[in-house]
From TrEMBL:
SUPFAM superfamilies: EF-hand (SSF47473), PH domain-like (SSF50729), PLC-like phosphodiesterases (SSF51695)
Record organism: Nippostrongylus brasiliensis (Rat hookworm)
Name of the protein described by the UniProt record: Phosphoinositide phospholipase C
Domain PH intervals: 1-81
Keywords per UniProt: Calcium, Hydrolase, Lipid degradation, Lipid metabolism, Signal
Amino acid sequence: MFRHLFFLVALTDILEVRSGYNTDNLHRAAKKYEFQEAAPEATCFSVVFNHAKFLHKSVDFSAKNKEERDRWVSVLSYLISEIKKQRAYFNEKNWILMKFHEADTNKSGTLSFREVWPLLKKMNLQINEDYAKAMFKEAEEQSTRDGVLDEKEFITFFERLTDRPELNHVLRMASGEGVEGVTVNELHNIFHVLHISFQFENVDIKKAESILDTFEQTLQEKAKEKLMGIIGKFSDNFSRCSLRRLLQSRWGSVIGEGRESIWQDMDQPLPHYYCNSSHNTYLAGLQLKGEATIEGYIYALKKGARLLELDLFDGEHGEPVITHKRTLIEPITLRNALEAIKRCAFESTPYPVILTIENHVGLVQQRVMVDVFREVLGDLLYVSPPNSAKEPMPSPNALKNKVLLRGKQGGGVSDADDDDDEANSKKKGATHHAAVDPEFSRLISVPSVKLSHNIYADVKTR
């Protein structure tokens, strides 16, 4: 008898829905012709979600036909999009209640301190356990039952834990009447001072009205969902609860207006800039065993990385693969990795992506590797024009939406030698060198060089 295991994934944990063979599991399965017949790519889709133990996890599906697959993808993508929008209209009370029910594993409708303490850590409350226990004890004294809190009591308990008396002081200082709340005019004055003193965004009286309306729910608007909905008493003035949410929004950001995205001069040669880089990008877990994964590349790109690492070796099926040398890491194909990189490369920023190629591939598969790069990346692949070595490299602006390869060029040897330098130096007469294919060398637009311990000499010679 087979035991069927079911588990629930919250919509809030779903990252994306992918059509076709676009996860590691489906890539491996699709190597078998029988699988492709039973589950054609046109019918397959995957739900990718956050997982406590792994970087990302996916559940893969095969629909009856392409039309059914497309309906599933469309509906799930719509729900994910709506949830992302709701995060901007965050209702803290609903969030606390959701966390309450997650912690209430026995469905008793109440929580003991033993259930509450792990929950507080999950909710990122950086507090001492003894302090939390004392506050729980105080809340429990107002409870109708001993040792537990119901929903309403837990919300009150959470309010007291997160109360910030210094915000009350700020409101009293800003208020003309010395109360814990500000009017529209007083809020406008606050923003005016911030604009003059700290170059915050200039806010006129109409904008101040809009901000107050956004962050503060009045008695007449209890049923409305507002941006950063508050917990506690509703008032016509701007309360401390609303002030806390405003400080957590873009209006409370220490980053000046116009500085939220890249604002610096991006027309200098590429080597003039620091680069958001990743190392062993294909690894999502242990470095000695496990699996290489396309999820590492997807995650890094979505987090803004502009330099990724590809450790390439000869593959068993005629195409290069990515893995970690001298380990038990299961490889992924270069083609699958490049397809994932191409799909996500410019989602977070249009600036160029640099692929560092650790080339351990023999000459035969290096020529295959050239074809794979050209086929998958197409016009995205930047190839340096002839005689470009004598000219400064193009700027990030000039290289927008381009992928650059970084590695050893012709006239040198592959990275296999660098890895074995120490071992080879101990072997007298070790003269074997792995060559770099000229066609692959032409694809390298960012040559890598091995530096000595004298950086001044390196700069002069390079």
